[in-house]
């Protein structure tokens, strides 16, 4: 919200997550094999509480992952990110490609609009409604991915031709702001991730070992 990207992140997340949500609700909500609590029966399809709970959990996990990635890609300063990657030992072409990929992610909606306009000029008919837009998105995703990969490869080749793989110290004209609170937050998040993983893995391993011993 402070970066001013909340509306763009929300719109992009909705476009990405909506097809997954529809698929999850149809598959797991109606045909969940382990469902026992039947809420409604529609012929061979059964709406079960367990299936809906599994579908909602799947959609929430997907939405969380997509939201975090899109928020980061739309908020990060690409020039500062590239400088930080290079200073930490990432090869310059690879660092630039990673930074450029994140920067390009922020312009996916504009690129898809241009691809759709080009396809419509060639005769693609987009039917009204959500179903029509989802059907048209299938034909737009492939050229979008190819364009992003091709552009990243061209930039990496141009950097290599300009000597970015040569050894020796480099001078950057971009400042890398890294305050004490930022460093503390990074280490705190890393420690929290380790703690969360350990809280899941350690009991599971201990239970497996005790079950084997028993």
Question: What general form does the structure show?
Answer: flat
Unreliable segments of 5+ consecutive residues: none
Topology order in helix (H) and strand (E) letters: HEEHHHHHH
Q: Distance between termini?
A: 53 Å
Quaternary structure of the protein: single chain
Number of contiguous helices: 7
The spatial strand order of the largest sheet comes to 1-2
Biggest beta sheet attributes: 2 strands, antiparallel
| Class derived from helix and strand content | mainly alpha
Mean pLDDT: 76
Portion in strands? under 5%
Number of strands: 2
Q: Using only CA atoms, what is the Rg?
A: 23 Å
Helix coverage percent of residues?
A: over 70%
Protein name: Energy-coupling factor transport system permease protein
Main location: membrane
Organism: Sinomonas cyclohexanicum (Corynebacterium cyclohexanicum)
Keywords: Membrane, Transmembrane, Transmembrane helix
């Amino acid at each position: 919200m402070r970066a001013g990207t909340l509306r763009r992140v929300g719109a992009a997340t909705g476009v990405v997550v909506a097809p997954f949500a529809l698929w999850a609700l149809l598959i797991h909500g109606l045909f969940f094999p382990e469902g026992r609590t039947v809420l409604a029966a529609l012929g061979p399809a059964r709406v079960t509480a367990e299936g809906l709970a599994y579908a909602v959990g799947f959609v929430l996990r997907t939405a969380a992952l997509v939201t975090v990635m899109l928020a980061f890609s739309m908020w990060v300063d690409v020039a500062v990110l590239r400088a930080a990657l290079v200073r930490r030992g990432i090869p310059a072409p690879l660092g630039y490609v990673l930074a450029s990929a994140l920067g390009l992610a922020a312009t996916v909606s504009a690129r898809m609009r241009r691809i759709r306009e080009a396809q419509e000029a060639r005769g693609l008919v987009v039917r009204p409604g959500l179903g029509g837009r989802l059907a048209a998105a299938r034909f737009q995703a492939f050229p979008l991915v190819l364009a992003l990969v091709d552009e990243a490869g061209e930039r990496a080749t141009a950097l290599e031709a300009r000597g970015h793989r040569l050894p020796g110290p480099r001078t950057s004209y971009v400042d890398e702001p890294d305050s004490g609170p930022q460093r503390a937050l990074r280490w705190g998040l890393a420690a929290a991730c380790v703690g969360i993983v350990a809280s899941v893995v350690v009991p599971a391993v201990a239970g497996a070992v005790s079950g084997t011993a028993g």
